[in-house]
Design a protein that fits this description.
257 residues; Rossmann fold; 7-stranded parallel beta sheet; 7 strands
Length: 257
């Protein structure tokens, strides 16, 4: 009887939120899971069955060290979920501090780039692999007062499409998931920041964002995780270079209140 193919999965920012949901979903499918996070307390709460590394996804030395350890422990990598990201500032473009801009772009875009940079040689050698980047509907539309985040997420889509072209001949696929508003603490923080910036109650903003989708609701982290598991699976063997929104169909990313 032929053994099931191995799936060694690395998920950045896997200590909570979407990344944690991805790790749980992959483990449920029999994958070996390695998560990173800048939040040591979040990592400590993760299951002991996961490999865990405290790391800033935008720090190249840390990323290089991580992949050296993956090579030693696992001998390769089958799936990279480049999921690390931060919301960045919520402000009019003229009020955005340059350091806030740089940090937002660094964690989101450069974090995804560094993961791909070090995963690609492993995947090319084994002639297989899947790279899944967590972008956003803000990476295919726009969002006023979120310039650094939107710019980074659009950049991640361009990175993904380039990876798909560059690595396709090695049987390595690259795709991006574009979540809409996701239930959970991260979206609560985004709404609170926008509430402060606009002087509008956070619950009114929540209802406005939900009404901006055709389904009239937020998605759950598990919805994003299910898509990641599919994109990493043999069922998606010919899916590459795609941005797949999991958002209940955003029809108005900037509902007027």
């Amino acid at each position: 009887m032929q053994a099931e193919p191995r799936n060694r999965v690395l998920i950045t920012a896997g200590g909570s939120g979407i990344g944690h949901a991805m790790a749980s979903a992959f483990e449920a499918e029999g994958a070996e899971v390695w998560v990173t996070d800048i939040d040591g307390a979040a990592l400590a709460s993760c299951p002991n069955t996961w490999q865990r590394s405290e790391m800033d996804a935008a720090d190249e030395a840390s990323v290089a060290d991580l992949f050296a350890r993956i090579a030693e422990s696992w001998g390769g990598l089958d799936t990279l979920c480049a999921n690390a990201g931060i919301a960045g500032p919520t402000a009019a473009v003229e009020d955005i501090d340059m350091e806030d801009w740089r940090r937002c772009v660094s964690v989101n875009l450069e974090g995804a780039f560094l993961g791909a940079k070090y995963a690609a040689p492993m995947m090319k050698r084994q002639q297989s692999g899947a790279i899944i980047i967590t972008s956003s509907v803000s990476g295919i539309m726009a969002n006023p007062h979120r310039a650094p985040y939107v710019a980074a997420k659009w950049g991640m889509v361009g990175l993904m499409k380039t990876l798909a072209m560059e690595l396709g001949g090695y049987n390595v696929r690259a795709n991006a998931i574009a979540p809409g508003p996701v239930n959970g603490p991260r979206m609560d923080r985004v709404l609170a920041a926008e509430s402060d910036a606009k002087g509008i109650d956070a619950e009114i903003l929540r209802e406005a964002y939900a009404s901006g989708t055709s389904m009239g609701k937020f998605v759950d982290a598990s919805d994003i995780a299910d898509m990641a598991v599919f994109l990493a699976s043999p069922r998606a063997r010919h899916v590459s270079g795609q941005v797949i929104a999991v958002d209940g169909q955003t029809v108005n990313p900037d509902p007027k209140i």
